[in-house]
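Database export, one record per block. Field names are fixed; values are copied verbatim from the stored entry.
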Amino acid sequence: MMTFGVSMQTKPQMRRWKSPSGRSAADSLPVVTRTSEPAVSAAACLKGIPAPVTCEGRYAGNRSLFIALLLSLLGVIAGSKETLAQGYVSMSGGTIFGPEKGDPNRALRGNRVNYTGGRLGESIFAVIPWNTVELWVGRAESSECDLVQVPRSQTGVVNGGLQTLPRVTLKGFSPGEKVVCQLRAYDSERATSWANASDPRSGVLHGSSTPFSVTLGSLELPASLKGLWENFNVHTDPVGTFVGSEWLSVSAFDDTSSGFISRIHQLNVTRFPGDPNTLINAERQLAEDYRDPETLRLFPSLTDISQALPNSGEGAPFFATPTINWGLTDYPGFETFLPNASIPGLPPSGIFLNNIVAEIRGVVFLEAGPHRWGVNSDDGFRLSLGHGKGDTFGLVIAQFDGGRGPSDSIIDFFVEKAGFYFMRLDWWQGAGAAAVEVFSVDACTGGRILLNDRTNPRAVRVYSSGGGPAFCRSVAPVPGQTEVDVRSPITVRLV
C-alpha cells in the first residue's frame, strides 16, 4: 500500500529583505546632478554651481573670490577638527608571538599560558611565514567583535618584531583617549587581508594578540604599542558543514508567522530492535511504522492532540511553539535556558512519559558566512536543512545518534548565500529524563540565544509557515532498517 499526503495552502505574504539600516548600499551614496545650461544669474554664481556650468562676465570674479574665502574658512575649521579628532600610536618594534613549532593549535584563542614557541616572521613552517600585521581598534570597553581595522595600519614582521611604522593615525579619536587595540597577523602571501585569512574556507592560519588598552598619543609623541599585550593566539575557525545555494528552496513565507511547528509521537512500547535510542529506530517511529509483530497493526500514538493546530493539511497533528526549550522538568546545571516549557502533546505528569519523538520544523533566515548553533538534548537529535518542508533526506548539519542525559552539541556550519531555508530538527527520548533546546552561539562572546527568541533582536528568526516544492516527509521502512517483516507495506508521505 502506498500512502501519499500532499499539503496545499494559500500563498503566504511575501517579504522583501533589506539591510539592517533599511537601505541598500546605493541608497547611502550622495547623488550629484550636473547640468550643461550656461545661463546663470549673479545669485547662482555666488551660491556656486557644479561644473561644467561657468559664470562669465562681472559675476565670475565675485564668485571666485567668494569661493576662495569660503574654502579657506572651511579649511581652517576642518583642520582644527581634524587635529582634535585624531590620536596617534607607534607600531615600531616589540616582539610578538606565533604558533607553537610542533603544534600550531596549541596557542588557541583565549589561552593564557605563556608562549614558548618561535616568533612571527621566522617562517616557523615553510608554508606559514606569518609576515603581516594589522591594527584593529575600538572605544574603551569594546569587545573583540566590535573592533575595526585602522586604515593603512598594515606592517611587516621582521625577526619576530613589528617592522618600523613610527606613526599610525586613528581618525575619530583624540590624544589622551583610552582605546582597545588588537594586533592581527596572517600570511600575506596566501591572503590579501585579515578578512580573507579569517574566512574559514581559506585554510590560512591566522592569529591575534589578546586585546589590550592604549592611551593615545599626539602627533609629536605617539603612544608605543610595544609589549602591551599578554600573548598571541592562533585562531582555528572550523568551517563545519558547507550549505550551498542549492538548498535555497523556500519560494514564499508568511511574514506574520513566528516559531516552529512540531509533530509529536509517543509509543506505549519500547522502540526495537536493539538500542531504542538509535537514529534508525527514532526515524522509524516518526514514520509511524511500529507494528505489532503478530498482527502488523500499527501501535497507536499516545499524543494528546487536543491543543494541536487545526487543519494542518498534512494528515497529522502539529503543535505551534515560539521556541524549542522543552523538558519533562528542569535540569539545573545541564541546560542553559530555564525554566523549561512543557513538551507539547504529552499526557499529564505521572503518566507514562517514555518513547517520545518529535519532528520540529520552521523556515529560518540565514546570513551568508559562518554560523555556530547548539542543541542540548536528552536523548538524541538530527538537525538538517531540506529542499522542501519536512524533507527527510535533507542536508544533515549535525546529529547525536544514541542516548545521553541533557548535554550540548555545538555545531559549526557555513552558508554560501543568504536567504530562507527549510529547517528540520528530529529529537527523541527513550526513557527517564527528556529535554531539548536549540540555540545560536555568539561567535564573539559565547553567549547563547534561543532560536526565534523575539525578545532578543540578535536571535535567529524562524517562521512557522512557508511554501516550497513538495517533498518527502517520511519513508517506511526507513533507510538502514533491519528485521523488516516481508509483509510490511512501503509507505511514502509527501508534504
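Remark 1: Residues 1-61, 73-83, 123-128 have pLDDT under 50 and may be disordered.
Remark 2: The chain has four helices and 28 strands.
End of record.
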